[in-house]
């Protein structure tokens, strides 16, 4: 997709909306900036574009053939195969830094208190521990808080109860709001990293706990949690000889989502945006102005400060207000153009803390979104025979 000259918003003006942009050719000539650009109006943030590489002008917008033919295709496939081999000889344990901190929360903790702990520690998720059975009890993520918010919306008369919920109540909350519980997957730290990636793609999990068995007690121990971000960073830092071969523009490889984009405006309520995230099963909603220009992105983790201290009524406040509560060290929003290439995106991942890239045209109008899951999926699965995918899928 395509130029967003006159976005078609299908919902109430000012409210969160699903907007689709009409197809039109992208005007050429704009360049990506090297490094952050400062754009400050209201709650707009500095955007960061991948470093520019020489970008060959694409001649077609069709998906590439499965069989590599041109030298560019061959090089791209060589890069992808190299990365896949790398992931097969490295383990999940290799991704962990030499020293790291792991915050594990007891299942008996009040949900309200868990929010403060995450915020104080600057983290957005934590493994849960069932101390009664001395067992790993799943992963607490922003999705759980979104479920609590949905519960609050469905049963507003139970607000006093919501404050008394413990982390162990999360499964019951899921049941009462009718959410299908996510499969709790984990991997052994010494298994190939490729296995963790395939498991993440199969379950749509954005993070996966590494669970080992204690030699003495025979009980499960959570070693750490690895995320899509950590894995892609690991590839970017340690496998540059293959990432530099990925020279095809994102437009040509169909990387990301370009239609039926869920978007909102600064005046949308936080609740509306959460509703979009739940309906579309997505972790971020681009915030645009009336001309479809990208102003910011509301991420699932932005929900956490909104409900700190049980202030659920603040969910009715605007996205603009909520975004102003972000930590001062927030890294900014990463953008790219459809002519950018995966090698430059990996270069950006190598240098920065990127969780997604928003695709914009030369006038900063929203074109699409590239999630880390899109990148991981492409890197692992593109060009694989369906049979191979199914075979590995049943093994993992
Ligand atoms: P994520 O939740 O970021 O892992 O993304 C899951 C899938 O949804 C990916 O294929 C994304 O390209 C797509 N996606 C992410 N955000 C949006 C959005 N706001 N609107 C439509 N699709 C999205």
- The chain-level mean pLDDT equals 82
Please give the number of β-strands: 15
Summarize the amount of helix as a percent range.
25-40%
Strand residues, percent: 15-25%
Unreliable residue runs: 1-42, 51-65
Q: How many helical stretches?
A: 16
Q: Measured on Cα atoms, how large is the radius of gyration?
A: 21 Å
Globally, the shape reads globular
Region (Disordered): 1-76
InterPro entries: AMPK_gamma/SDS23_families, CBS_dom, CBS_dom_sf
Biased composition (Polar residues): 59-70
Pfam family, one: CBS
In short:
Helix content is 36%, strand content 17%. With 396 residues, the chain is of the alpha+beta class.
Structure commentary:
This protein is an alpha+beta fold and about 400 residues long. The protein has helices at about 70-90, 90-95, 110-120, 140-155, 160-165, 170-175, 195-205, 230-240, 240-245, 250-255, 270-280, 305, 320-325, 340-350, 370-380, 385-395, and strands at about 10, 15-20, 35, 45-50, 105, 125-130, 135-140, 205-215, 220-225, 260-265, 285-290, 295-300, 335, 355-360, 365-370. Strands 3-4-13-14-15 form a 5-stranded mixed sheet. A hairpin with a 5-residue loop joins strand 14 (about 355-360) and strand 15 (about 365-370). The two termini are about 35 Å apart. The site of adenosine monophosphate has 16 residues, from strand 10, strand 11, strand 15 and helix 15. Keywords: CBS domain, Repeat. GO terms for molecular function: AMP binding; protein kinase binding; protein kinase regulator activity. Belongs to the 5'-AMP-activated protein kinase gamma subunit family. One of its GO terms (cellular component) is nucleus.
């Amino acid at each position: 997709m395509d130029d967003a000259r006159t976005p078609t918003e299908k919902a109430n003006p000012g409210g969160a909306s699903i907007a689709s942009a009409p197809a039109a050719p992208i005007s050429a000539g704009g360049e990506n900036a090297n490094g952050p650009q400062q754009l400050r109006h209201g709650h707009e943030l500095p955007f960061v574009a991948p470093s520019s590489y020489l970008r060959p002008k694409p001649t077609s917008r069709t998906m590439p053939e499965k069989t590599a033919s041109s030298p560019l295709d061959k090089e791209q496939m060589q890069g992808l195969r190299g990365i896949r081999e790398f992931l097969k000889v490295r383990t999940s344990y290799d991704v962990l830094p030499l020293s790291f901190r792991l915050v594990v929360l007891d299942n008996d903790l009040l949900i309200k208190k868990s929010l403060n702990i995450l915020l104080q520690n600057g983290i957005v998720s934590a493994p849960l521990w069932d101390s009664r059975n001395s067992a790993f009890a799943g992963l607490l993520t922003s999705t759980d808080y979104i479920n609590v918010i949905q519960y609050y919306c469905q049963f507003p008369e139970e607000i006093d109860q919501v404050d008394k919920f413990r982390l162990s109540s999360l499964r019951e909350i899921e049941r009462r709001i009718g959410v299908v519980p996510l499969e709790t997957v984990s991997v052994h730290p010494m298994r190939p990293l490729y296995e963790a990636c395939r498991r993440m793609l199969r379950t749509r999990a954005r993070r996966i706990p590494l669970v080992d068995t204690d030699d003495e007690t025979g009980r499960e121990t959570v070693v750490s949690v690895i995320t899509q971000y950590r894995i892609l960073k690991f590839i970017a830092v340690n496998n540059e000889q293959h990432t530099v071969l990925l020279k095809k523009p994102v437009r040509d490889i169909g990387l990301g989502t370009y239609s039926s984009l869920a978007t909102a405006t600064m005046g949308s309520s936080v609740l509306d945006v959460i509703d979009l995230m739940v309906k579309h099963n997505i972790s971020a909603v681009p915030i645009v102005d009336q001309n479809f220009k990208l102003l910011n992105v509301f991420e699932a983790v932005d929900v956490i400060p909104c409900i700190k201290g049980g202030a659920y009524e603040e969910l009715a406040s605007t996205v603009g207000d909520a975004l102003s509560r972000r930590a001062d060290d927030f890294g900014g929003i990463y953008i790219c153009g459809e002519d950018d290439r995966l090698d430059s995106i990996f270069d950006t991942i190598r240098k920065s803390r990127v969780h997604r890239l928003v695709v914009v045209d030369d006038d900063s109008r929203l074109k699409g979104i590239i999630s880390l899951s899109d990148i991981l999926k492409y890197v692992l699965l593109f060009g694989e025979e369906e049979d191979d995918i199914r075979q590995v899928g049943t093994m993992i």
